[in-house]
Specification:
The protein is built from 13 helices and nine strands. By secondary structure, it is α/β, with parallel strands linked by helices. It has two domains: 7-200, Rossmann fold; 211-278, Orthogonal Bundle (Arc Repressor Mutant, subunit A), CATH 1.10.10. Strands 1, 2, 3, 4, 5, 6 and 7 form a seven-stranded mixed sheet that branches. A two-stranded antiparallel sheet has the order 8-9. The longest helix has 28 residues, at 130-157. It starts with 6 loop residues before the first strand and ends with a helix.
């Protein structure tokens, strides 16, 4: 059974392994990232997947940006004390990268948790029109942020040190991964390509203050009770504060077509920040 005080590294996974494999002739360089049929063929071919794993084993820091950054940070630490959570897009190319990286890390003794897939444009666009693609992509990024915040909160309650590694992956997912790190007050690092070294990022997120904290406490209290007319009137007094809290993703406001407020809830990050602000 896992002991408290261990680490978890949440890693946004990109395609550096794939592009390096193509450059080195391990995979056909003519295959486009958007060609899902070709990537599915590779994913379903055990021999090619083993070949990619051998390629990664030959120089893991050189051929995978995610592994390069991760191994530098955990150097000298016992692998059995470290968990890894890989996130990426719902595409076969990314699934290949995550599968090979997962196998490599497991060989080294790290505990790799089940990864989470999120909307990837190329995969979605084969089945939906452009409007649907954009909508699904937006939902995917939002779900990613909430999922990462939940994982970080859960692990921290168990005594884990939580690290976020937003080095690789789709830009929107990298941003979401970094934001989750900021909002959960976690340690975060990435690879500075210009200087070829790991950089730890300072904590950075919006901190509610004064009246905003009182509003958050009231929302938390009212979430547990039935919404009434007095509650609606109270909200109207703090229009600027509510707008600011909504912009920073601390609260979610449901509005009618005429913009009247119908409901208001704390988001996962809002609860986290309020707990942090009010804890002794």
């Amino acid at each position: 059974m896992q002991e408290v005080g261990e680490e978890i590294h949440i890693i946004s996974t990109g395609l550096s392994l794939i592009t390096n494999a193509q450059k080195n002739g391990v995979i056909d360089a003519k295959i486009k990232i958007s060609d899902e049929a070709k990537w599915k063929e590779i994913f379903d071919n055990p021999l090619l997947m083993d070949k990619l794993l051998d390629f990664l084993r030959s120089d893991p820091k050189k051929f995978s940006a995610e592994i390069n950054t991760f191994l530098r940070v955990v150097e000298g630490k016992p692998p059995q004390k470290i968990e890894v959570f890989l996130v990426g897009t719902n595409t076969y190319s990314n699934e290949i990268a995550r599968t090979v990286i997962r196998r490599f890390l497991q060989e080294q003794g790290y505990l790799v948790l089940l990864d989470k897939e999120f909307s990837g444009y190329f995969w979605e666009s084969q089945f939906f029109d452009e409007t649907k693609v954009a909508d699904e992509f937006q939902k995917g990024v939002i779900n990613l942020l909430d999922q990462l915040i939940f994982i970080a909160q859960t692990k921290k309650k168990k005594g884990y040190r939580v690290f976020f590694n937003p080095t690789g992956g789709l830009k929107a997912h990298v941003i979401a991964t970094a934001l989750a790190g900021f909002l959960t007050n976690s340690e975060m690092y990435y690879m500075n390509e210009e200087f070829s070294n790991v950089v730890f990022l300072p904590l950075l997120f919006y901190i509610p203050k004064g009246r905003e904290i009182k509003i958050l406490k009231e929302i938390e209290k009212l979430e547990k009770s039935e919404k009434n007319e007095e509650f609606d009137k109270a909200l109207l007094q703090f229009e600027d504060e509510l707008e600011r809290l909504e912009i920073y993703g601390i609260i979610h406001i449901k509005r009618a077509k005429n913009s009247d407020i119908l409901d208001i809830k704390l988001t996962n990050r809002g609860r986290l920040i309020l707990d942090w602000l009010t804890s002794p």
